[in-house]
Amino acid sequence: MAELRPSVAPGPAAPPAPGPSAPPAFASLFPPGLHAIYGECRRLYPDQPNPLQVTAIVKYWFTGTDGPSGFGFELTFRLKRETGESAPPTWPAELMQGLARYVFQSGNGPRLAAIVGVCTEELHSAQQWNGQGILELLRTVPVAGGPWLITDMRRGETIFEIDPHLQQERVDKGIETDGSNLSGVSAKCAWDDLSRPPEDDEDSRSICIGTQPRRLSGKDSLESDSSTAIIPHELIRTRQLESVHLKFNQESGALIPLCLRGRLLHGRHFTYKSITGDMAITFVSTGVEGAFATEEHPYAAHGPWLQILLTEEFVEKMLEDLEELTSPEEFKLPKEYSWPEKKLRVSILPDVVFDSPLH
């Protein structure tokens, strides 16, 4: 039986507590449990006609005898109440239900998670640096969340507009020192082997890969749930390519500088996984272990998975040439970049190109 005591925080107004002499018609309006609670509060606090809210110290759902079912976890979202709002909005519940559904469908492990609303520029900074660093910055700006990370849906300024020094002194320095902890994204992307004649479809005939999305790590990376024949992972041979053409939509292309500066220059890797098919593109640095792309053969494919190994010198060159990708609103699509000496081409294309079933 949970111990009950009145909370010090004011709660919603309770109906007048029915005493022993309350008319039967009045007493019948209350469930027996509430009737007992209101009656006890009236006895303990006779000078309070409107009892304070009652709060359970020990909650049933934390002290039940059943073990964890594996079908639930807790999400937290602190939302600023709008002026004149008398009841919580329903959209946060729908948002959290959608997030929970995604977690279960993706196979990721549930854990206690707090949702924090951020502006687009703050999200990009979290991608380029790390989420924890941006959260700490939000805590220092009261109107952007403060210590409790309260989301204000009407906030019109980013933390970088409120305090311009945060971008250069904290974020840029953090990227330079720590790099980025974002190791990959789902994206609209594709790649072509320019060193193989289009009519040479030997590999496409000998390797049958399904069209279901899949993870890139471990043996499951190339397994398929389709009804077609499945080639074991170890039987899919790795091909060394001479020349490749990478294709990204504008949103994905804007992350290339992040990939280069925040990941490869820190000895890490970054993966683009296509949301429209099986293809994946992984950029690796010379310090990444387990890569099948090497300095001798920097372009290598394992089925639909392409790895590209970039030296630090070439990364610096690409960053210089791709500088405009950090401001995608300033250029028109399509956009193409080429490094003939490296036999590498990168195209930034409209979304419709990737939405086409013929792509």
From TrEMBL:
Q: Which Gene3D superfamilies match?
A: Sufu, C-terminal domain
Which residue ranges does the record assign to the Suppressor of fused C-terminal domain?
Answer: 169-348
Q: Where is the Suppressor of fused-like domain?
A: 68-108
**Gene Ontology BP terms:** negative regulation of smoothened signaling pathway; negative regulation of transcription by RNA polymerase II; signal transduction
Gene Ontology cellular component annotations, sorted alphabetically: cilium; cytosol; nucleus
Annotated spans, Disordered? 1-20
- Pfam family for this entry, one: SUFU
- Alphabetically list the UniProt keywords: Acetylation, Cytoplasm, Developmental protein, Isopeptide bond, Nucleus, Phosphoprotein, Ubl conjugation
Say which domain of life the source belongs to. Answer: Eukaryota
InterPro entries documented for this protein: SUFU-like_domain, SUFU_C, SUFU_C_sf, SUFU_N, Suppressor_of_fused, Suppressor_of_fused_euk
Subcellular location, record wording: Cytoplasm; Nucleus
| Protein name as catalogued | Suppressor of fused homolog
Q: Which taxonomic lineage does the organism of this UniProt entry have?
A: Eukaryota, Metazoa, Chordata, Craniata, Vertebrata
Tell me the name of the encoding gene.
Answer: Sufu
